[in-house]
Design goal:
The complex is a heterodimer of chains A (255) and B (290). Chain A has 255 residues and is α/β, with parallel strands linked by helices. Helix content of chain A is 36%, strand content 24%. In chain A, the strands form two sheets. Chain A has a six-stranded mixed β-sheet, sandwiched between helices. A three-stranded antiparallel β-sheet of chain A has the order 2-1-4. In chain A, strand 6, helix 6 and strand 7 form a beta-alpha-beta unit. The longest helix of chain A is centred in the last third of the chain and has 18 residues. In chain A, 47% of the residues are buried. Chain B has 290 residues and is mostly helical. A two-stranded antiparallel sheet of chain B has the order 1-2. In chain B, strand 1 and strand 2 form a beta hairpin. In chain B, helix 7 runs antiparallel to helix 9 and helix 9 packs parallel to helix 10. The radius of gyration of chain B is 23 Å and the shape is flat. Chain B starts with a helix and ends in an 11-residue tail after the last helix. The relative contact order of chain B is 0.14. The chains are: A alpha/beta (255), B mainly alpha (290). Chains A and B meet through strand 5 and helix 3 of A and helix 1, helix 8 and helix 9 of B.
């Protein structure tokens, strides 16, 4: 079976020779269909850069990187992934429905099929009744849910999320985490999730990759062996706290 | 487009025009709207009436000579007496201004699109365009009279077109280029090509810039047309009429022509506000306020 993401000693340097800054070095990663992987680490550890390489928003300077068995560029033009950014990045002049339909429009999907998909996606993120609202009429959490619906609209095999809940308050954040897990379960997509929250990474993932900066490398890989059904009970599970401690220690081991 | 109505049913204040701070209402379906309109317009109407009364009062009280500053009542009398002439001349001038406006806007938008599409063109041409923008363009009027013939309407339209061209081109180019990088990345992530990005991100983003420049350009085009008329040409236009009546010391007539020019300028401006409202109902300046 093809790996969803496969990286072999991938590196990324910014700037020209002489004053080059190494952002990522020696990244090895294997991700199978259905994995939920979190990248965690301090600011500047290259976790967002790695996500951007997978998304072909930047090019690696060394190593081999493939997405769905193709080059990242090919995967992007084949629309193998959907991306959710740090800010919702909704287009102000489009209603919620029209924002969700955006990728479908670009793919030349017919009007009625677009409307059907958008309706389905908005139901999935529980925003059905806000279909005709404009983004500025929604709260931050709702906007981010629209962005998730947009990323899932064309049923990509892979969902890339770059600190999607960073700007949300703690309560909304926990609700959104629950939501993402539900979507992941219902759609069978694989997820790469960038975060700087330890509990978030542990709660969501099947695997947590701890990254350290200068240059950005994956220093620890922690399998999350919590029961696959995650809910508020999970947050009280002693194993949950053990895993949080494990990730925290991994992050601190490089100070 | 119905979502906003559902959200706050009692709130229908729409159409704030930022440049003037004036509300342009386009929908009035509820009784509350009339009261709201009255509240919005009353201060402006009162202030306008006060200025006119003050003007009339001071000119009477100080016995100001008509050739220095006619009383508003004298201007209105002349306006009524010369009604058909000033409007006929006014529309001829407006035609010059509007024709030039359209030519200038079309050329400006074409340049802006080219500037976004070809980086070389942008880097080569824009600095020159910005430098030319500081040139007093109405000074070209005698040259254009020479090129097209002073009786050819194109001589006047060209001046208006050149005056309109620069602000519209510079603002539209900025609007097309200064797009949120996040939105460009989003478009890249869904494998959208340059045409798609232009259509779905850059153009909607440039609309507020474009309309802001049109508002400036509408006034500029009328100014340019009238000044171009001062440099000679047919007599049946506002610019020549103002000169002729002033030479004959018929100052209330000249002021009546200025009044017509102002009314046409306001109408032109309002037309653009309406177009703006129709083109981008989603914009922040049209949102309902608490």
């Amino acid at each position: 079976m093809t790996l969803v993401v496969e990286a072999r000693s991938v590196s990324k340097t910014f700037g020209r020779a002489g004053e080059a800054v190494s952002a990522l070095a020696g990244i090895d990663l294997e991700m199978s269909q259905g994995d939920f992987i979190s990248l965690i680490g301090p600011s500047g550890c290259g976790k967002s850069t790695l996500l951007r390489l997978i998304a072909d928003l930047a090019k690696p300077t060394g190593g081999e990187l493939s997405v769905n068995g193709k080059t990242p560029e090919r995967a992007r033009t084949d629309r193998d992934y959907g991306m959710v950014f740090q800010s919702a990045t909704l287009l102000d002049w489009r209603t919620v429905t029209k924002n969700v339909e955006l990728p479908l429009e670009i793919m030349d999907v017919g009007g009625s099929e677009r409307a059907r998909r958008a309706e389905e996606m908005l139901k999935l993120v529980q925003l059905g009744q806000f279909a005709d609202h404009f983004p500025w009429q929604l709260s931050g959490g709702m906007q981010q849910r629209v962005a998730i619906a947009r990323a899932l609209a064309f049923s990509p095999a892979l969902l890339l999320m770059d600190e999607p809940f960073g700007a949300l308050d703690e309560m909304t954040r926990e609700l959104m985490q629950q939501e993402v897990l539900r979507l992941w379960g219902e759609t069978g997509t694989s997820v790469v999730f960038v975060t700087h929250s330890i509990p978030e990474a542990v709660f969501l993932s099947t695997r947590v990759l701890v990254m350290t900066p200068r240059p950005g490398t994956i220093s620890h890989e922690i399998a999350i062996d919590l029961p696959s059904r995650r809910d508020n009970e999970t947050r009280k599970n002693p194993r949950y706290f053990e895993l949080i401690t494990e990730v925290r220690d991994a992050l601190r081991s490089h100070d | 487009m119905t979502g906003r109505d559902d959200l706050e049913p009692g709130n229908r204040q729409i159409g704030a025009a930022p440049a003037l701070g004036v509300e342009i209402p386009l929908t009035s379906s509820r009784p509350a709207t009339a009261r709201r309109l009255a509240a919005v317009y009353t201060p402006a109407v009162v202030a306008f009436a006060a200025v006119i009364l003050l003007w009339e009062g001071t000119t009477r009280l100080l016995d100001v000579e008509t050739f220095l500053l006619p009383k508003p009542s004298e201007i209105i009398t002349s306006f009524v007496d010369t009604w058909s002439t000033v409007w006929e001349f006014g529309f001829r001038t407006l035609w010059e201004a509007f024709g030039g406006f359209v030519i200038g806007v079309v050329a400006a938008v074409a340049t802006s699109f080219a500037a976004v599409r070809w980086v070389r063109f942008r880097e080569g041409m824009l600095p020159i365009a910005i430098a030319m923008n500081s040139m007093p363009i109405v000074a070209l009027a005698p040259i254009f009279n020479n090129w097209f013939g002073s009786t050819n309407v194109l001589a006047k339209m060209s001046v208006a077109a050149v005056v309109v061209y620069f602000p519209v081109m510079i603002n539209t180019t900025r609007g097309l280029l200064e797009v949120d990088p996040g939105e460009l990345e989003l478009m890249r992530s869904v494998a959208a090509g340059p045409t798609e990005t232009m259509r779905r991100v850059r153009i909607p983003h440039a609309l507020p810039f474009f309309f802001a420049s049109l508002k400036v350009a509408s006034a500029l085009s009328l100014i340019a047309a009238i000044i171009a008329e001062y440099f000679g040409g047919p007599q049946n236009v506002l610019g020549q009429y103002i000169i002729n009546r002033a030479n004959l010391f018929q100052f209330p007539d000249a002021w009546a022509a200025i009044l017509v020019a102002s009314l046409l300028g306001i109408a032109f401006y309002v037309l653009i506000l309406v177009m703006e409202r129709l083109a981008m109902p989603w914009h922040v300046s049209f949102r309902e306020t608490e």
